[in-house]
Amino acid sequence: MNKLVVKFGGTSVATTAHIQRVAARVLKEVEKGNSLVVVVSAMGKTTDQLVHMANELCAEPSKRELDVLLTTGEQVTISLLSIALQKLGLKAQSFTGWQAGIHTETVPSNARIEQIDTQAIERALAEGKVAVVAGFQGVDSNDNITTLGRGGSDTTAVAIAAAIQAQRCDIYTDVEGVYTSDPRYVKNARKIPQLSYDEMLELAHLGAGVLHPRSVELAKNYEMPMSVRSSYCEEEGTMLKEEVQMEKDIVVRGVAFEGDIIRLTVYYEAPYTSSLASIFTTLAKHHINVDIIVQSVIPNMTPTVSFSVKKEQLKEALIILGEHKDTLGFDHIDHEAELAKVSIVGSGMASNPGVAATMFDCLYKEGIPVKMVSTSEIKVSVVIPQEEMLHAANALHEQFDLSILPETIA
Ligand code: ASP
Ligand code: MG
């Protein structure tokens, strides 16, 4: 019997009518002879509403209590879906994160899964039940309820798939797959049939909101075949795997973008008043994610280091750096807001020089100023003014001919 893990996101379970539709879909998979674990998100915008309620009481609610609150969203869905499945004549059992044996580290609101005790799920499957598991949640070694970070249900699904050695993990969502760029904002964006884990990982990290980045990381580590597909139609979605079919002349596969980026600049009076590492170690200790880093030490000029962070982390980053000012040895800090990051991604870049140059040239011709650059083997990112974000994404999508479905090489 094939073991499958399927995950349905918030929009797919937004109402009880949606949940009935999901139940019918699950029934179909069970009738094909598959043994199913179904991971679900909270219904519709429930998580946002819960966050909003907490914020009505306090601007900075305790992260522990926020985790307890947010996990109730998924708990509602698992019970309703199990009831809907039972109504269709299936045996079904719901599991919260801790009931499913999902053990995480002790990091409220952004915990990583450390280990999954699969006995309870495996027992349910052996008894012919559908196991319905709450996404996005786990329990730490002190029995605190934890969450995996917004969008974390994808990660729950892939982690369970790896732990029970499932054949595949299918992520059902409200779009038909992974697109060359966000079709809501970029003209002629199209679905990509296949992507390598590495390309997807870059796209997910660079703001293509369709998958939680850690889910792709896990899929890659465990070589778990993973698909992203629509819960509203039968169309094949996007398949993620290690090696994908070569596409003729394809260098860039996708354009990702993300707003609300802040550039922080730290000024020193003299070079090396402290190790550069200490700034980033300090920030990392406080779970501040630093992205692009640019350091410049030029004779006769004030040495600086600039780096980008997300808007939500600005306040915390400034407080932490301020508290450690003396040990970090800097003079002052300033920051620039209203920035965005636009990136191009594709494994073909590794063997095709000149891609970054084409990108910069395109942006220059469009009159878009570039403030920071970062590259890896398979991506180039630029930080630009936020008001130019969609302009840049559309221009690059066209520059690299992404609207045209490439021929594949057999
Ligand atoms: N419900 C959570 C969120 O909205 C987790 C998820 O949907 O993946 O972030
Ligand atoms: Mg999601």
TrEMBL record:
GO cellular component, one term: cytosol
Binding site residues for substrate: T47, E74
Top-rank taxon, per record: Bacteria
InterPro entries (UniProt xref): AceGlu_kinase-like_sf, ACT-like_dom_sf, ACT_Aspartokinase, AKii-LysC-BS, Asp/Glu/Uridylate_kinase, Asp_kin_monofn, Asp_kinase, Aspartate_kinase_CS
Swiss-Prot/TrEMBL catalytic activity: L-aspartate + ATP = 4-phospho-L-aspartate + ADP
The Aspartokinase ACT domain, residue ranges: 342-400
Pfam families: AA_kinase (PF00696), ACT_9 (PF22468)
Gene3D superfamilies (UniProt xref): Acetylglutamate kinase-like, VC0802-like
Keywords: Amino-acid biosynthesis, ATP-binding, Diaminopimelate biosynthesis, Kinase, Lysine biosynthesis, Nucleotide-binding, Repeat, Transferase
GO molecular function: aspartate kinase activity; ATP binding
Enzyme class per UniProt: transferase
Cited PROSITE patterns: ASPARTOKINASE
Pathway info: Amino-acid biosynthesis; L-lysine biosynthesis via DAP pathway; (S)-tetrahydrodipicolinate from L-aspartate: step 1/4; Amino-acid biosynthesis; L-methionine biosynthesis via de novo pathway; L-homoserine from L-aspartate: step 1/3; Amino-acid biosynthesis; L-threonine biosynthesis; L-threonine from L-aspartate: step 1/5
Keyword ATP-binding (UniProt): yes
EC number(s) reported in the record: 2.7.2.4
Alphabetized CDD domains for the sequence: AAK_AKii-LysC-BS, ACT_AK-LysC-DapG-like_2, ACT_AKii-LysC-BS-like_1
GO biological process: diaminopimelate biosynthetic process; homoserine biosynthetic process; lysine biosynthetic process via diaminopimelate; threonine biosynthetic process
Residues that bind ATP: K7, F8, G9, G10, T173, D174, Y179, R184
NCBIfam families recorded: asp_kin_monofn, asp_kinases, PRK06635.1-2, PRK06635.1-4, PRK06635.1-5
Function, in words: Catalyzes the phosphorylation of the beta-carboxyl group of aspartic acid with ATP to yield 4-phospho-L-aspartate, which is involved in the branched biosynthetic pathway leading to the biosynthesis of amino acids threonine, isoleucine and methionine.
Assembly: Tetramer consisting of 2 isoforms Alpha (catalytic and regulation) and of a homodimer of 2 isoforms Beta (regulation).
UniProt similarity note: Belongs to the aspartokinase family.
Protein name, entry field: Aspartokinase
Species of origin: Kurthia sibirica
